[in-house]
Amino acid sequence: MQASEHKDTSGVTRAARLSVAPMMDWTDRHCRFLHRQLSRHTLLYTEMVTAPALVHGDVARHLDYDPAEHPVALQLGGSDPKELAAATQIANDWGYDEVNLNVGCPSDRVQSGCFGAVLMKQPQLVADCVAEMQAVCRAEVTVKCRIGVDDQDPAEVLPAFLETVAAAGVQRFTIHARKAWLQGLSPKENREIPPLDYDLVLDMKRAFPQLHISINGGIGSLDQAEALLEQGLDGVMIGRAAYHAPAEILAEADARVFGSGDAGDAFAAVEAMRPYIARHLEAGGRLHSITRHMLGLFAGRPGARGWRRVLSEGAHRPGVGLDLLDRALAELNPAVRTA
Q1: pLDDT lower than 50: segments of the chain
Q2: pLDDT in the model for residue 212
Q3: Residue of 31, 105, 129, 145 with catalytic role
Q4: What is the pLDDT at residue 4?
Q5: What pLDDT is stored for residue 339 in this prediction?
Q6: Distance between CA atoms of residues 243 and 247, nearest Å
Q7: pLDDT at residue number 223
Q8: Closest Cα to residue 62, out of 34, 110, 96?
């Protein structure tokens, strides 16, 4: 029996109403553990892991995570159907809730490997890749893509791309509502310069009502996410805003997006991180590896600058421990701490 026959996707599909984007060098396991302290339901993504890195590299380093991170999705990069299938089989034992294929990253490294956004030019290859992945995957296989690349006309290529890949069995897509310019723009510029086209993504939901379509790109608040959901989209993926101000985006997500009725709290999140940090330090880890993801936890609140300063200046020093966290917390306005 194929792995695809065992899938129960209802839980992860619900979680995909709101997700935190996969971001290289940012959404590692420590970042995801922090985000989970703020929202129980939001879907979290790993950084992109290339298929060759899993097939030929240190599997545990790339795939290990804390069970508390569920629901959590693994994002893979690659363009060889057999190699992606092999990587997916390796990932099965880690129990991710979803395996996502990256068809959106515009970096030079990705282009040279013939994966990421450049695959928008080869929808049949993407279909072949996901078909091979689905044949062995115990979780749902999904795709994150752009609306097009370079001189493509998104209104023509995006529906054709979705139709081709959906025919291979993919039912859930996350669409970054910008083109990717593979020549002339850096990865950072590709996140900011090409204009956003939310209307086209909304058109895709109307054209493919049977597909679960999430939107990504330029979404900076929970209010904006709710407005997009109200327009008929199935999900919203937030990237940099969720990283730089995690409490602002995630603390009210369970109540507002998922209707769970409870809200997270930045101070409670810090307390929940203590035993996690202690275990990391006891295992020989560095405080900075975790606290670098916590710098924006109190963004916009009194004392936030002092919090960031204490952690930024001290967390990389050898031997520093949880006492630094206490010193950083002391920078915050006591009235806010008890609010």
Answers
A1: 1-6, 336, 338-339
A2: 98
A3: 105
A4: 37
A5: 42
A6: 9
A7: 98
A8: 96
pLDDT digits (tens, 9 = 90+) for 238-271: 999 999 999 999 999 999 999 987 888 999 999 9
Task: Spell 123-161 as b/e; 16+ CB within 10 A means b.
Answer: bebbbbbbbbbbbbbbbbbbbbbbbbbeebebeebbeeb
pTM over 0.70: yes
Residue 187 is predicted with a pLDDT of: 72
Q: What token pair was written down for 189?
A: 């510029």
What is the Cα gyration radius of the chain?
20
CA 194 to CA 206: how far, in whole Å?
24
CA 141-24-166 angle, to 5 degrees, is: 20
Using CA atoms, how far apart are residues 245 and 252, in angstroms rounded to an integer? 12
Class in CATH terms, 3-256: alpha beta
Contact criterion met (CB below 8 Å) for 336 and 297 = no
Does residue 105 carry a catalytic annotation? yes
3-class secondary structure per residue, the chain: CCHHHHCCCHHHHHHCCEEECCCCCCCCHHHHHHHHHHCCCCEEEEEEEEHHHHHHCCHHHHHCCCHHHCCEEEEEECCCHHHHHHHHHHHHCCCCCEEEEEECCCCHHHHHCCCHHHHHHCHHHHHHHHHHHHHHCCCEEEEEEECCECCCCHHHHHHHHHHHHHHCCCCEEEEECCCECCCCCCHHHHCCCCCCCHHHHHHHHHHCCCCEEEEECCCCCHHHHHHHHHCCCCEEEECHHHHHCHHHHHCCHHHHCCCCCCCCCHHHHHHHHHHHHHHHHHCCCCCHHHHCCCCCCCCCCCCHHHHHHHHHHHCCCCCCCHHHHHHHHCCCCHHHHCC
